[in-house]
Model the fold of this input.
Amino acid sequence: MKRPTIKDIAAAAGVSKGAVSLALNGRSGVSEQTRARVLAVASSLGYRPSVTARALSSASADAVGLVLVRPPRALGDEAFFFQLIAGMQSAMSSALLLQVVESREAEIELYRRWWAEHRVDGVFLVDLLVSDPRVELMSSLGLPAVVVGGAGHHGELASVWADDYAAMTSVVEYLKSLGHRRIARIAGLGSLLHTVRRDEAFASSVVDGGASGGVDGVVVYGDYSAESGAAATRELLSRGDRPTAIVYDNDVMAVAGVEVASSLGVAVPAELSIVAWDDSVLCQHGRLTALSRDTFAFGARAARALLAVVGGALPTDVEDVLPELVVRGSSGGAPGA
Amino acid sequence: MKRPTIKDIAAAAGVSKGAVSLALNGRSGVSEQTRARVLAVASSLGYRPSVTARALSSASADAVGLVLVRPPRALGDEAFFFQLIAGMQSAMSSALLLQVVESREAEIELYRRWWAEHRVDGVFLVDLLVSDPRVELMSSLGLPAVVVGGAGHHGELASVWADDYAAMTSVVEYLKSLGHRRIARIAGLGSLLHTVRRDEAFASSVVDGGASGGVDGVVVYGDYSAESGAAATRELLSRGDRPTAIVYDNDVMAVAGVEVASSLGVAVPAELSIVAWDDSVLCQHGRLTALSRDTFAFGARAARALLAVVGGALPTDVEDVLPELVVRGSSGGAPGA
DNA sequence: GACCCTAGCTAAACCGGTTTATCTCCGGCT
DNA sequence: AGCCGGAGATAAACCGGTTTAGCTAGGGTC
Done:
């Protein structure tokens, strides 16, 4: 009652192991007649190839990898990643090898190992850094990879990204059009590429003269946690010339910001407009104006891109649809405007 | 510059492959002197064993599995699972093989395959059903497994669980003490074991005479989605004798319930008290009274239990701490009480 | 001195596939 | 008739480990 192996099929079909392998993989070297017989025997025996054995002789591993570098406890609140993972899975029939590690060094070591052992066919690269060493690593290893969320082109790698620059510009323009002249930004980790992109867009559209003239823009950095969002908001709101609008880099920080504002007696949106990046159940329920994108679909797109690269396709850059600003109750005209 | 294999070490240390294997795995059959030499050579060469090859010869696979049966898109909003996964990872050094499938049959097929190929050392079983076929399957396969969240004892399997019965009872008692006499419950999938447990506890404590006497209790089933929570709430609130308190089986449905209540002009908590199961950022920000437990720690505990079973320990049942009711703004005295 | 046991090691089989080298047979061409 | 080429198949090597059978040398026992 053991699961049948290629050897059993060979015996049952009266051919050699090698012939069975060729037949099953649709390669030439066996007659159509033999191939048909082998396939028949295989299916009648309920044969399923062993991914483990196959991986050992340097073929497909039937899995792709994702490594997240985070303090594990902080991860659970980030709905973004889970949405992304769910989306990836929806477009893949293979399994996802997931591991959370503490350091970038451990991450790199893991890639080396997984690839050397053919445990994965390819990997997703998230949280791209400015001049990220992983890009070079993938090329030198020859490990198929897709950069997820890092705008622009990265060496020889495929990437799937959304235009953070344009999105940030649209948010600032929206706020300016409402009469805001002191706009703040509570950013995420400054080491991440997309943070830098957003910084650039923010800086550029803030100083941009245009019809509305330049405005005052200040940036404070957080780490996506509610605590850091609250602290940053508190700092901004306690200034003499406090901003009339704040753009947050994620939903958790934005929600924390709303809390702080209300506890300080600052009315939202009458005295302070709040915009969150990345929509979620949290924003929907909190009625937060948010930059919304379909993270699930984004994940699915990333998975398809990775499968293509694994399949030998030339790496391409896929731009996701532009995040759309969903206006809810947390934003409005500037006070006195 | 290829990664060194056991063969390279053998050559460098001047012994056979077999001796190297014995030495590295701390097994008897080699002298301490030889072992030391082999270990020295191995570390100087930066040797890392190949999990793939090792798995093939029926040893450790250095990974554990988790299969989720869900429509993938619905998954992303369930912070619970991601918290759980993050917690699991925090207590494991091995990777997690994660796959989302559409059907229970596919799930079972996956367990068979993963185990036959030694792709995993063990699996987590979540969303336990009433008389779940997986329990029997694990025993017959001999696949180490831990039941996560299914109260009670399951065949020969280890389990990690929280006392849903006691928790539900405490919620109902709390509501009764506030004067509520018509209490409803919006449950999750009726096929899940923990739903049944909560049903039993709910039914029992609702009819329980005690000091406060019996109360009216009705149960409606949802599927954890915001839509189903909203629909169920709408149904309950449009009844003639609408409940004055509703207990939800998860956070997403509870939050949707708050929305519906306010859209129907039913004041929370003045006219309707709402209690959510499983606390989350969502509940915290929505100021929902919720049954809170540390899902992250729960996941970590489950991981440790699985590692123990994989390591050959006798399966045990570990009871998690009792979920604690965190009272926030969504619950209060019954109207007119 | 014959016998047995054991520690310490080697050679080889094995896990379940893929891949390469080799062998045979058959047909076509000159 | 002799030679070549290719199709179809097989045997064997290989991937990187684990495991078992077997060999050798040394020590203890009677």
Residues 15-19, 22, 28-31, 34, 53, 55-58, 117-118 of chain B lie near DNA strand C (CB under 10 Å from a C1'). Chain B has a mean pLDDT of 92.
